[in-house]
Amino acid sequence: MIPEDLRYTAKHEWLAPTDAGTFKVGITDYAQDELGGIVFVQLPEVGTTVQAGDAFGEVESTKSVSEIYAPVSGEVVAVNSALDTAAEVINDDPYGAGWIVELKADDPAAVEALLDAAAYRELTASS
């Protein structure tokens, strides 16, 4: 499942605009499926500044540990603290309740440079 209205990275993060002008970020359905049962998420602190492409957290699963990368540069304005006690929600609902952070982008236009659903579908089809 690849929602049409989101933007994606080649490292399998998604980005969705919010009504507040920020962007929710999570890992894709493809990523959570590859990871298997997610048991822990290391979240950054609110107020953390991130640079596009840099790791800002980790997802630990029964198979491995994977870093989570910032799709755009900006500031973390919220974290999904529900993941502290229920990380597996990422497996169940990666594009909804499984969001990881909310970012205030330094340059909202940078989002347009990310992959659209068709490009992400093509990327994952070749994996």
TrEMBL record:
The modification N6-lipoyllysine is found at residue 63. The glycine cleavage system catalyzes the degradation of glycine. The H protein shuttles the methylamine group of glycine from the P protein to the T protein. Its cofactor is (R)-lipoate. The lineage of its organism: Bacteria, Bacillati, Actinomycetota, Actinomycetes, Micromonosporales. Belongs to the GcvH family. Keywords: Lipoyl. This is Glycine cleavage system H protein. Residues 22-104 form the Lipoyl-binding domain. Binds 1 lipoyl cofactor covalently. NCBIfam families: gcvH (TIGR00527), PRK01202.1 (NF002270).
